[in-house]
Amino acid sequence: MNAVLTLNESPEEGKGRLSGVEVAVKDNITTKGLRTTAGSRMLENYVPPFDATVVRRLKDAGAVIRAKTNLDEFGMGSTGENSAFGPTKNPHDPSLVPGGSSSGSAAVVGGGIFPLALGSDTGGSIRLPAAFCNIWGFKPTYGRVSRYGLIAFASSLDVIGPMAGDVGLIADVMEVISGEDPRDATTLDRPPFSTGKAHEFSRKGGFKVGVVRGHLEMVSEAVRERFEPFVDLLAKAGNDIVDVNLNSTRYALAAYYVIATAEASSNLARYDGVRYGTSVRGENLFETYVATRSLFGDEVKRRILMGTFVLSHGYYEAYYLRALRARRIIYEEVLSWFSDVDVVITPTAPVLPPKLGAGFSPVDYYRLDTLTVPFSLAGVPVLNVPLGGFVGVQVVAPFGEDERAVGFGFYVSELL
Asked: Which residue in 101, 103, 105, 248 is the catalytic one?
């Protein structure tokens, strides 16, 4: 599968809530003494001297860090094909992509190699591969889990979250890794995730479930054939199905790719051959810059160029500021849902996983994120529920109410 980049031959073992649970960690999350590459030649030989906060908290809970997993370079991709170390394959059908960017994490869990993995999600990078690999994946509320030790792609969007074969393990891990962190100023001043609250919500019954009907016009027949029976199942179980709209969906993809690429351009400027990462020496400083930054893959270069353009003089107001205004509109529309419903559901991906090496255009490639990026821009918690057949459904909850999304996951896991 080419899912594992580094295997930890002598992991530390401890006692605690997750004692003995083997964990694979996406290779853009730092692990002390274990190579962390972000899927890039730029960091091919980087061995961090420190653990990310999430890794430290897992170790303190007794978990065993066993492997570092492959990913689209610097988290930039939706298929798992953009790693400098080769593509990851879908564990259920090697001819298909596993989704990205947390491709290796999804593949090792979907293939039964490890029960648990950590991924990161900027515009869908946990949810999309979780759907394509038929596993559970959770994108927490932005700020609920520390980003300290996560190699940055787009800092206002990046989150770390768990991927597992069952929703119970998702909840257990969230209790361990969530909570305020003085090393990350963007973490929320809120208590850690509570599995008890999630179970309490799951027993509520008679849920009002919003369905984004407009999204069903954007998905393939194969996705619709899995999603609509799931909605019918919820209705037959006594839940009230309510149609909701997300009119701002039409802004979301463009706004996301302006904001994310702008932040990527800024974050990746540090890889210049002088201060940070691999350095390829040229005859002068300019040639050193060129040779070093040529190590980036094509997709990373594309996003840096896009981001630099939208931040340039004369375009900042026309693109970046307008994208931020669109982001606010999306957030407010998503927030408005929850005065009427408990949770909202929508398909995770518009299509089934494409064939490996399909080579479609960048625009078609970015459209894989159509249904995930609105909720990244809103910063709200989203759980991918696997429906089988490479199809997932997103369970969306209000900002900060991660227990509601996972609690609904407990509820539907009893129905499926």
From this structure: 101
